Amino acid sequence: MKQNTIWIVEVQEENTIGWLPTVGIGLTRKEARGEKGNWEEFHPDDRFRIRPYVPRKGGKQ
Question: Torsions phi, psi of 23, nearest 5?
Fold first, then answer.
């Protein structure tokens, strides 16, 4: 059975190294981009990335 992909939005704040935890999610990439737009409106200097969620191997679900 095929699982649906969950898309997550992560942020890299200005003057920080590395990506911070999820700030938005979507069931489609387009939906996740909408979440990014909402966040970006109030934080224009931050960088964002959208990627598929990949659960940890052996982790709880």
Answer: -110, -5
* Token pair in block for residue 8: 């997550």
Domain boundaries, the chain: 7-52
Torsion of CA 12, 16, 17, 21, to 10 degrees: -40
pLDDT for the residue numbered 60: 60
Burial annotation 27-41 (CB, 10 A radius, 16+ → b, else e): eeeeebbebbeeebe
Residues 6+ apart with CB under 8 A from 12: 18, 19, 20, 46, 47, 48, 49
Question: Which regions of the chain are under pLDDT 70?
Answer: 1-2, 59-61
Q: Are 24 and 7 in contact (CB under 8 A)?
A: no
